[in-house]
Design goal:
This protein has about 90 residues and is α+β, with helices and mostly antiparallel strands. It is built from two helices and two strands; from the N terminus they run ααββ.
C-alpha cells in the first residue's frame, strides 16, 4: 500500500473553501428548478390540454426552465437549459 501524504493547513483551508464554493453552486443550480423560483412571483395558473401539460412536464424532467411569452393572443412556451452559475 502507498503511504498517504499529509497536506498542510493552508491546503486544507483552500480545499475546505473550494468544497464550500462547490456546495453553494450546487444549491444555486438546484434552486433554479424549485417550485417557487428565487425572486420570482406566481402570477396565475392555466388549465391546458394534456399534450401541452406533457410538453412542460418533459421539459422540467430534462432539467429545463419553462418560460412563456405572448404573441398575437397565443401563449408561446419555451424550454431553456440552466446556464452556468457565475
Amino acid at each position: 500500500m502507498k503511504k498517504r501524504s499529509l497536506i498542510s493547513q493552508r491546503e486544507a483551508r483552500e480545499l475546505k473553501r473550494r468544497v464550500a464554493d462547490l456546495e453553494r453552486q450546487e444549491d444555486l443550480r438546484r434552486n433554479c428548478y424549485a417550485q417557487s423560483y428565487p425572486g420570482g412571483m406566481h402570477i396565475g395558473a392555466l388549465s391546458v390540454a394534456i399534450d401541452d401539460y406533457v410538453r412542460v412536464s418533459v421539459a422540467r424532467r430534462l432539467k429545463h426552465a419553462v418560460v412563456c411569452t405572448t404573441e398575437n393572443g397565443v401563449i408561446q412556451l419555451y424550454a431553456l437549459p440552466l446556464g452556468s452559475a457565475a
